[in-house]
């Protein structure tokens, strides 16, 4: 066994198997140089129950390089950095913010300058829109 394979934990191994299964199921061909947005689009075509959103590294908001044309509340957030696409486990951690609106792709901070919408007001606004749609 090569040292790199020994270094992989059990969880990592499982992820690798699942990733391989996904690559096969989605019929994505990834060259040795790696994949890019065209390959992400193929994954999106396969994963219709998730909306894939790709952000660039170092940006705090709106630097989105891919947004899947899927109407789903379930999101798969990826961060593109140094030629790799990493899954974002926590948007708050990834964007170092207190709240992140996944509908508007806006980070919110507890210490916001005056005149900027507060997170609670933002959430309420979304809920009011939802309520008016139901009526
Ligand atoms: Zn929003």
Low-pLDDT ranges: 1-9
Gyration radius, in Å: 18 Å
Q: Quickly count the helices.
A: 5
Count of β-strands: 6
What are the bound molecules?
zinc ion
- State the shape: globular
Main sheet: strands, sense, barrel: 4 strands, mixed
**DSSP helix fraction:** 25-40%
Overall structural class, as computed from helix and strand content, comes to alpha+beta
Give the topology, please:
Elements: H1 3-7, H2 10-25, H3 37-46, E1 51-56, E2 64-67, E3 75-81, E4 84-87, H4 91-94, E5 99-101, E6 106-108, H5 119-134
Parallel strand pairs: 1-3
Antiparallel strand pairs: 1-2, 3-4, 5-6
The protein binds zinc ion.
Describe the structure.
With 135 residues, this protein is α+β, with helices and mostly antiparallel strands. The protein has a domain at 36-96. 38% of the residues lie in helices and 20% in strands. The protein contains five helices and six strands; from the N terminus they run H-H-H-E-E-E-E-H-E-E-H. It has a four-stranded mixed beta sheet with strand order 2-1-3-4, covered by helices on one side. A two-stranded antiparallel sheet has the order 5-6. Mean pLDDT is 81; it is low at 1-9. The site of zinc ion has 6 residues, from helix 5. Residues 101, 103-104, 106, 122, 126 line the site of zinc ion.
């Amino acid at each position: 066994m090569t040292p790199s394979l020994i270094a992989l934990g059990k969880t990592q191994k499982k992820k690798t198997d699942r990733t391989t299964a996904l690559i096969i199921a989605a019929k994505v061909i990834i060259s040795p140089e790696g994949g890019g947005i065209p390959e992400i689009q193929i994954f999106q075509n396969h994963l219709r129950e998730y909306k894939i959103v790709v952000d660039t590294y170092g940006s705090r908001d709106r630097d989105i390089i891919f947004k899947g044309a899927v109407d789903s509340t379930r999101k798969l957030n990826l961060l593109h950095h140094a030629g790799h696409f990493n899954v974002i486990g926590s948007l708050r951690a990834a964007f170092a913010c207190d709240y992140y609106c996944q509908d508007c792709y806006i980070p919110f901070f507890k210490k916001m300058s005056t005149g900027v919408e507060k997170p609670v007001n933002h959430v309420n606004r979304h809920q009011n829109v939802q309520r008016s749609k139901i009526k």
